[in-house]
UniProtKB/TrEMBL annotation:
<dbReference type="InterPro" id="IPR050740">
    <property type="entry name" value="Aldehyde_DH_Superfamily"/>
</dbReference>
<dbReference type="InterPro" id="IPR029510">
    <property type="entry name" value="Ald_DH_CS_GLU"/>
</dbReference>
<dbReference type="InterPro" id="IPR015590">
    <property type="entry name" value="Aldehyde_DH_dom"/>
</dbReference>
<feature type="active site">
    <location>
        <position position="299"/>
    </location>
</feature>
<dbReference type="InterPro" id="IPR016160">
    <property type="entry name" value="Ald_DH_CS_CYS"/>
</dbReference>
<keyword id="KW-0520">NAD</keyword>
<feature type="domain" description="Aldehyde dehydrogenase">
    <location>
        <begin position="63"/>
        <end position="522"/>
    </location>
</feature>
<dbReference type="GO" id="GO:0005759">
    <property type="term" value="C:mitochondrial matrix"/>
</dbReference>
<dbReference type="InterPro" id="IPR016163">
    <property type="entry name" value="Ald_DH_C"/>
</dbReference>
<protein>
    <recommendedName>
        <fullName>Succinate-semialdehyde dehydrogenase</fullName>
        <ecNumber>1.2.1.24</ecNumber>
    </recommendedName>
</protein>
<dbReference type="GO" id="GO:0009450">
    <property type="term" value="P:gamma-aminobutyric acid catabolic process"/>
</dbReference>
<comment type="pathway">
    <text>Amino-acid degradation; 4-aminobutanoate degradation.</text>
</comment>
<dbReference type="GO" id="GO:0004777">
    <property type="term" value="F:succinate-semialdehyde dehydrogenase (NAD+) activity"/>
</dbReference>
<comment type="similarity">
    <text>Belongs to the aldehyde dehydrogenase family.</text>
</comment>
<dbReference type="InterPro" id="IPR016161">
    <property type="entry name" value="Ald_DH/histidinol_DH"/>
</dbReference>
<keyword id="KW-0496">Mitochondrion</keyword>
<keyword id="KW-0560">Oxidoreductase</keyword>
């Protein structure tokens, strides 16, 4: 199902009579629907006052509607309430945005690195100054607990800060010449207009880690955020204007994902597509980019193993596995998808882990103490349900949870499933929800074999107190990122990206800059003449 269809489907589902029963059976310790709505309403009013609740696309520095005035609704996944309508744009608006980015490229790419750096720094300062507003907006449209949203703002803004700093370090090279009257230079130049397509699970950070380096290198961008969470993208774009970034450098369109994607792919002016999302859409974009031989960076799905060895520190492993699994209700591509536990520690780990998971409070992201919000939509819950059903039918055992939460809507109980086998869906595919499958193993070799037995290769986690083992296993894992005794490892200063079908290219760090740069070799000959 396309994201647009899913959004509409979700919206209909959210407003269906059955979902209204939400207010009739709140948990004793959790606020009622009415209280939640009040909180959300207050947030909306505050955001309107601050000018950050934008409901139009941004093209050439102007806030615009769809040419045919069509709109889509953006809903709060915790309550089903409509936050605002945004334009349902398509090919026409995307082509306008591309033209605007193409025109702005000429002057933006000619600025000095220091000038671009200053704009980015100003943007970073504004993102941080509006941390509270942006955090609330993320919780409102995406559902994650406010504490996590505020963390995302710091993390996401960090990519802009890092890019502001790194802009000044895009060095070329001088190569020793092979002939005495020649000089050989390497210049690094911006690739041009970039199409940035992003998902709903990190409404800010997935954008900043593309747009920061793109702008730092001298590129201009057309952003297409997820239709489920476009509001944070629009607020960030508003702040880019306030930072003085010239009109046309940052454009935002949203609506019909396939039409927008096709327009970006077809344009000869767009020289690069950078995408974070599902493997299926990533493959389509990669194929579509071949028509105009565009550069492509892809951050696709994962199937992260979290390997707990007998020699692990139990507390560290439990804490790390919970962070790796249940962050954002399990809805990240680096979330632990399979918890592989060595036989000697299996029982102890399963008990301690289940006990800790049981303490995770589920509820509206605005409620103090909540550790897990709703899933993004009904389709996400149905996927989780089908994976759990498949595991149970093949002999796995529910140790905790295993069903929808009594809060209703798209809330799902934090779940632990024991005795999972590699042929079950929970092992083969990304569940993208709050379900931790435990798979027992005997030896280090078996753990590595199980961990690598997938087409994905994004993140992996290892818990062990042996330095030698941590090196051996890290080297053997076919993954782009490895966390040792740590469940959350992403940072703007380190390279993020996958191997195998988890993607191409890296984001963040000095390596992430290369994705937006062309290398030009210049040979200066005939040096001896005047
Ligand atoms: P998810 O299942 O996480 O929503 P998707 O890959 O469907 O992952 O969505 C990630 C981003 O890709 C979203 O912005 C979505 O609108 C966009 N998208 C979906 N289908 C297409 C498409 N055919 N062309 C371009 N972008 C698309």
């Amino acid at each position: 199902m396309s994201t647009l269809m899913r959004a509409t489907h979700t919206f209909t589902k959210l407003l269906s009579p059955s979902s209204r029963s939400f207010s009739l059976r709140p948990s004793a310790s959790l606020p009622t629907r009415h209280q939640m709505s009040t909180e959300a309403e207050n947030v909306i009013a505050r955001l309107k006052n601050s000018g950050l609740l934008r409901s139009q696309g941004l093209i050439a520095g102007k806030w615009v509607d769809a040419h045919d005035r069509k709109t889509i609704k953006v809903c709060n996944p915790a309550t089903g309430e409509v936050i605002v309508d945004v334009p349902c744009m398509g090919q026409k608006e995307t082509n306008d945005a591309i033209s605007s980015a193409y025109e702005a490229f000429y002057s933006w790419s000619k600025l000095t690195a220091t000038e671009r750096s200053k704009f980015l720094r100003k943007w970073y300062d504004l993102l941080i100054a509006h941390k509270e507003d942006l955090g609330q907006l993320i919780t409102l449209e995406q559902g994650k607990p406010l504490k996590e949203s505020l963390g995302e703002v710091s993390y996401g803004a960090g990519f802009i800060e890092f890019s502001a700093e790194e802009a000044k370090r895009i060095y070329g090279d001088i190569i020793p010449a092979t002939l005495p009257d020649r000089r050989l230079f390497v210049l690094k130049q911006p690739v041009g207009v970039v199409g940035a397509i992003t998902p709903w699970n990190f409404p800010l950070a997935m954008i900043t880690r593309k747009v920061g380096p793109a702008l730092a290198c001298g590129c201009t961008v057309v952003i297409k955020p997820s239709e489920l969470t476009p509001l944070t993208a629009l607020a960030a774009a508003e702040l880019s204007l306030q930072a003085g970034i010239p009109p046309g450098v940052v454009n935002v369109v949203m609506g019909n994902a396939a039409d927008i994607g096709d327009a970006l792919l077809a344009s000869t002016q767009v020289r690069k597509i950078t995408f974070t999302g599902s493997t299926a859409v990533g493959k389509k974009l990669m194929a579509g980019a071949s028509g105009t031989v565009k550069r492509v960076s892809l951050e696709l799905g994962g199937n992260a193993p979290c390997i707990v060895f007998d020699d692990a520190d139990l507390d560290v492993a439990v804490k790390g596995a919970i962070a790796a699994k249940f962050r954002n209700s399990g809805q990240t591509c680096v979330c632990a998808n399979r918890v592989l536990v060595q036989e000697g520690i299996y029982e102890k780990f399963a008990n301690a882990f289940s006990k800790a998971v049981q303490n995770l409070q589920v509820g509206d992201g605005f409620t103090e103490g909540v550790a897990q919000g709703p899933l993004i939509n009904e389709a996400a819950v149905q996927k989780v349900e089908s994976f759990v059903k498949d595991a149970i039918s093949k002999g796995a055992k529910v140790l905790l949870g295993g069903k929808r939460h009594s809060l209703g809507m798209t809330f799902y109980e934090p779940t632990v499933i024991g005795g999972v086998k590699s042929e079950m869906l929970l092992s083969r595919e990304e569940v993208f929800g709050p379900v931790a499958p435990l798979l027992p193993f005997k030896t280090e070799e078996e753990a590595i074999r199980l961990a690598n037995d997938t087409n994905a290769g994004l993140a992996a986690y290892v818990f062990t107190n042996s330095i030698q083992r941590s090196w051996r296993v890290s080297e053997a894992l076919e993954y782009g990122l490895v966390g040792i005794n740590e469940g959350i490892i992403s940072t703007e200063v380190a390279p993020f990206g996958g191997v195998k079908q988890s993607g191409l290219g890296r984001e963040g760090s000095k390596y992430g800059m290369d994705e937006y740069l062309e290398i030009k070799y210049v040979c200066l000959g005939n040096m001896n003449s005047n």
